[in-house]
Each structure stands twice: as C-alpha cells, then as structure tokens.
Amino acid sequence: MLNSDRIRTTHVGSLPRTPELLSANEAFQDGKISWDELVATMQRGVVDIVAKQRELGIDVVNDGEYGHTMSSSVDYGAWWNYSFSRLGGLTPSDEDRWADTEQRRSSPGNIVLTTFSDRRDRERFREAYEDPSSGILTARKSVKQPKITGPLTYTGQEAVAADIANLKAAMEQTGATEGFVAALSPGSCARVTNEYYKTDEELVYACADAMREEYKAITDAGLIVQIDDPSIAESWDQINPEPSVEDYLGFIQLRIEALNHALEGLPPEQVRFHLCWGSWHGPHTTDLELKHLIKPLLSINAGGYSFEAANVRHAHEWKLWKDAGLPEDKVIIPGVVSHSTNVVEHPELVADRIENFASAVGRERVIASTDCGLGGRLHPQIALAKLESLTAGAALATDRLF
Fold first, then answer.
1. Helix (H) or strand (E) holding 224
2. Helix, strand, or coil here: 178?
3. Residue 145 and residue 273 in contact, taking contact as beta carbons nearer than 8 Å
4. Which end of the chain is more exposed for a tag (fewer CB within 10 A), N or C?
C-alpha cells in the first residue's frame, strides 16, 4: 500500500518484553504454567504494546514479537530461536552458536559459515570484542540450538494462531488498520546444524516448505508477513576466508529462490522482506555493501523491502535507490533510527533521512522504520523514545513532502 497523504511509519518487529512476559516464558519452559496461562499473559501484553505503538503514532503495528520467546531481557536471537519450538525434525543439542567455534559447510564455492566468535569483524577487533567495558556485547543467557536429524515439518500451528489472534484483537481494540507478524526466512532457518539432508539445496527447500505454512497462516488472516532474513547480508561476515562476491551471490541466490518458492501464491502486497547486517553492536567493518545486494533483494517477491539505513556503516547507501529500478507498486521501508546506539536520533535528522529516500523513489513509496528490532537490544525507555523520534521525524517530513 502506497502513501497517499503522509509518510507512514512502522518498525522491524521486536519490542521490549515486559517483566511479566519474561517470567511467564521462563515458567512455561520450566513446566510451571500451562500454554493457556502463557497465552493469557501474551494477550495482555500485546494489547498494551499495540496501544503504545498507536499512542506513539506508528501506522503499521505488530505484536512486538511477544509470541517469539526471549530467553532474557537481552537476547539478540529470539527472532530465530522461536522457530525451534515450531518445527519437527529437530533434536536438542548443547550447541550455542554465539559461543561455539565449530564450522559448517555449504555450497556453492565451498562456502564455510562460522559461528559468531569466528566472524571476520570479530577477528579484526578481537581485543575490543573480548573487553567487557567496550559495550559491544552485553551479558546474555546461553541458548542451545538444536540439530536437524529428520524431515523438517511445521508444528507451530497453535503458536502462530495465537500470534495472529492476539494481534488482531489488539488492533480491533486500538483502531489500528495495518498489522504485521514476523516470520523466519528459509535461509535463516537453514543455519541450524544439519545432520539429515544430503545437500544444501535439499535443506533450504525443506525449510521453505515448512515455514510456508506460517507465512500462509499470517496472510490468510489478512495480516502482513515480514520475512526476517539477516542471512542474506549477514552471512558474508561468517565466511572465512572471505569469498568472492560472485561466489557469495551464488550462495544467497539459492536462498532467494527457495523463499520465492515458499511465497508462491501469496499476495505480494501482504509480504515484506527484512534485510540487515546483524543486530550486535560491533564495528561492522566487514559488512557487504548494499550495492551488491540490491538487485537480489528486488528479485524477492515481496511488496516492501525493509533494510538498515540509519546504521552508520550503511547510512550513505540511500543514493543507490535512485537507480535501483524499484517497481512502481513496491515500497521501501528504510531504517531511519538505529538499534545499535543509545543516542536517540533528533527528529530533524529522521526527517532528513526520510526526505533523502523520498527524493530517490518518491514520497508515496517510503515507509519510515527502524533498522532492526529494538527489543532485547535497547533499554525499554530508550526503545520507546526512538519510536517517538521516528514518528516526530515522519511528521516533519510529511509537512515538507505533502
């Protein structure tokens, strides 16, 4: 849906969880409360967080990803880890990819994906990464990732139904007219250690077939599905040694084709795709530039494209959209406030960033957003202040553009 009379606003998805929800998540995992009791806590929380979004002026709201369990108030991986309880074919393990150093291979080009501790950015700044006073990494609860040991199936019907019902009920109560639910991409789903599928292609397409059920449930309910896929950009930094750009584009092309397979038949206007370079607060000097990714991005069958643009490693890349060839019926959803700094962007800066994108693709095709999810990455008070600055900046840009 294009803008008609103003710059609309949204965000990437994750918003700070309440202490009540964090406690309920832990109690449910420990078997101390039932699923129904957990859902009741989520319902109350979703109503409140949607009301807060509307109060702050957010147009396209979501459930804060409250149905995606966070392990603690600091959790960079909830966007991915939530899928472990919604997929069959997985076996628990003692692996924590944020800490382990075991390598995994994929093709083509003999691509080698490493864990977080072996990223090239971390190698370059190892002293800073290992210094607790640097603020790059914050204490987090260890989360064990499972392994794929059998055919992947989707088992999250009850969970995604709760996500949908909670958001729709909250939208009805608050008068919100547009809402989205985030869901894991096939490419990111495939980053779980695989001990069953014989080829990378079999693995990625199995992930696509399983996750399609979640995408379809969301769009069938009249909501927008946001495909969360850091793997398209972020995996570049997980490859040692650094590959050629050509080999890397071949690696992500399979993931894009599998995603389009999963999206087949779904209304593009109810699909938006989120690309980012990862949510950790590091230097990011080894990020792959957007100029290499913009063409693959636009080949994804989505109606909107969300991406980091306030991140200071990528803020200059707005110029690329002048010649990107964005189709007339598509929108871009650039981040104009960042999750990677505690500094709250001034509304004038937010407005300037929005106007840059409007000059590149047209005012009707820019929805102002955040770089990535704010929940689990910023203090709740700062996260809400950033949303407030986002909508204030969009109002300034609206006055200038409409």
1. strand 224-228
2. strand
3. no
4. C
Residue 345 — φ and ψ, nearest 5°?
-60, 140
* Cβ 256 vs Cβ 200: under 8 Å: no
- Comparing CA positions, the residue from 95, 98, 99, 103 lying closest to residue 241 is 103
Q: Is the pTM of this model over 0.85?
A: yes
Closest CA to 164 of 60, 63, 58, 16: 63
Residue type, 363: R
Residue 205 CB burial class (10 angstroms; 0-12, 13-18, ≥19): buried
Tell me the domain boundaries of the chain: 19-401
Compute the half-sphere exposure of residue 248: CA atoms within 13 Å on the CB side of its CA.
21
Take residue 164 and report the two structure tokens written for it.
Answer: 């949908």
Distance of alpha carbon 280 from alpha carbon 282, whole angstroms? 6
- Extract the tokens encoding 306: 């969300």
pLDDT band at 137 (very low <50, low <70, confident <90, very high): low
pLDDT tens digit sequence for 87-106 = 999 998 877 655 544 444 44
Identify any residues that bridge with 113 across adjacent strands, giving them in sequence order: 104, 239
Distance between CA atoms of residues 159 and 300, nearest Å: 26
**CATH 3.20.20.210 is the classification of domain 19-401:** yes
In eight-state DSSP terms, residue 150 is: E
pLDDT digits (tens, 9 = 90+) for 240-299: 888 999 999 999 999 999 999 999 999 999 999 999 998 788 899 999 999 999 999 999
Q: Which residues contact 323 (CB under 8 A, 6 or more apart)?
A: none
For the segment 319-348, the average pLDDT, to the nearest whole number, is 96
If you compute the radius of gyration of the chain from its CA atoms, what whole number of angstroms results? Answer: 20
